[in-house]
Amino acid sequence: MKKGEQRKQELLKLAYRMFIEKGYENTSIDEIVAKAGIAKGTYYYYFASKEATLEAVIEMMIEKDSAVAKELLQAPLSIPEKLVSVVNAFRPEKEEVVITDVLERKENIVMHDKICKKIVEVAVPILAEIVQEGIAQGIFSCTHIEERVKMLLVTSQHMFDYGNFGEKDVEVYIDMLEKSLGAKSGTMQFISQVLVEGAKE
């Protein structure tokens, strides 16, 4: 890694920690610069604004999630469990919600859409690989795999990331998931328990 890129990554990791500890709104560029021990001009060499820093921090989080998801491909899990685990890998950690919540504000809608597209771009090929493996094992039976996993990923993000779902929502989601992937009824039923446990955290 070149020295300039290394410095940029160090700044990103520092901003990430400060956003989690203090909140995005309560962290100023001056504070990041002071903590990093650099001139403000150096900061602006790497990031045009605080918003640009936020976007880069979230992209760094997605890269971290992608690495975890790829490791799950080799995990000793059943195919359905791998599928759900990879989707969960792209959800923010509990302490990271203070960062991702900023994207929900209307002034950040462009950045929000850009980040959502990035998650889909990174996650869909990994999920498609798992479904392909499931088809080979006779667990799933479907075509247009990438389109299906994209739809299921986006649905899960909107439904479950903020805990706004009821028992019927989960029931319908599981039914839709099984039918979309051509799985036997009950194959994905364990998801309801995963969601209940997640809601308790």
Automatic annotation (TrEMBL):
Pfam families, A to Z: TetR_N (PF00440)
GO function terms (MF aspect): DNA binding
InterPro entries recorded: Homeodomain-like_sf (IPR009057), HTH-type_Tx_Regulator (IPR050624), HTH_TetR (IPR001647)
Keyword set includes DNA-binding: yes
Keyword Nucleotidyltransferase applies: no
Entries under PROSITE patterns matching the protein: HTH_TETR_2
Domain HTH tetR-type residue range list: 5-65
Residues within the DNA-binding region(s): 28-47
Keywords, sorted A to Z: DNA-binding
Protein name: Transcriptional regulator, TetR family
Species name: Oribacterium sinus F0268
Lineage summary: Bacteria, Bacillati, Bacillota, Clostridia, Lachnospirales
